Amino acid sequence: MKEMYRKSSSLMKSVVRKENLKTAATRVRRNKGAAGVDGMAVDEVEDHIEKLYAPLRQKLLQGTYQPQPVKQVEIPKPNGEKRQLGIPCARDRVVQQAIRQVIEPIIDPYFLPQSHGFRPNKGTHTALKQCVAYYEEGYKVVVDCDLKQCFDTLNHDKLMYHLEQFIQDKAILKVIRKFLTSGVINLSSEYVERKSGAPQGAVLSPLLCNIYLHELDKELEKRGHQFVRYADDFVIYVKSKRAGERVLKSVTRFIEKDLKLIVNQDKSQVGHQRV
């Protein structure tokens, strides 16, 4: 399906509607989470939005809203390694949530059914169901392709270009670009510029990742592959190991050349699927 440009200048007006921002603030509070660099707890954010609604609305409409840097934290992974997250301040989370509430219903219908992660009414249960279906159709060899630090390596210019295929509202595009480049306060409390990537921990990042990897989905579909993607994890189903090795090489070339992402050769493999 070919994407259509959203020729509308009214989307930011929908974002800054008081009811939309209040709903976003409530969702941020309910999702809990740590405070960002400004120290504001999420329990305070609804009152904060209520009191500062007028200037916040004006800044978003005028394109002068300036996000704060994200706060870098580390959390342990099951394999003993650590994953770095970027925690936006509570107000920035509300703004991102308010934007997501407006643009996600416009964008999501264009995503392919093979994409399951961070989407309405989809998840691990739908992904596993599709995996089982491929297996039962005779696709019993799986190409497991691991993207290395996908969220951290998304190319900003490519991401914004792909986002513009769905959304043309300049005010929204401007503030999303600011969120991407707002920088990081690292573990040593030093400011670090962000030249690529969308921080894991930010409200918009999963949607932005899906927008970026939608290009991968379209390429895999064009090649006739049977595949399942959940955010930055994806597998391709084939009928022989020889075919799998060939697919892994060709898909790796596309990912690294066209998407400017890195395939982790140590973790990417071809093997027999067991269901």
Q: How would you describe what is shown here?
A:
With 275 residues, the protein is α+β, with helices and mostly antiparallel strands. The chain contains eleven helices and eight strands. The protein has a four-stranded mixed β-sheet, with no helix packed on it. It has a four-stranded antiparallel β-sheet with strand order 6-7-3-8, with helices on both faces. A hairpin with a 5-residue loop joins strand 1 and strand 2. The chain starts with 10 loop residues before the first helix and ends with a strand.
Roughly what is the average pLDDT, rounded to an integer? Answer: 94
The geometry reads as globular
* Fraction of residues in H or I helices: 40-55%
Uncertain segments are 1-8
Strand content: 5-15%
The largest beta-sheet arranges its strands as: 2-1-4-5
Q: Based on helices, strands and strand pairing, what is the structural class?
A: alpha+beta
**Count, helices:** 11
Rg, Cα atoms, Å = 20 Å
Largest sheet, in brief, is: 4 strands, mixed
Question: How would you briefly describe this protein structure?
Answer:
This protein is an alpha+beta fold. The chain is built from eleven helices and eight strands.
What's the layout of helices and strands?
Elements: H1 11-15, H2 18-31, H3 45-51, H4 53-62, E1 70-76, E2 82-87, H5 90-107, H6 124-136, E3 141-146, H7 150-153, H8 156-164, H9 170-181, E4 184-185, E5 191-192, H10 205-222, E6 226-230, E7 233-238, H11 241-258, E8 269-272
Parallel strand pairs: 1-4
Antiparallel strand pairs: 1-2, 3-7, 3-8, 4-5, 6-7
Helix pairs in contact: 2-3, 2-5, 8-10
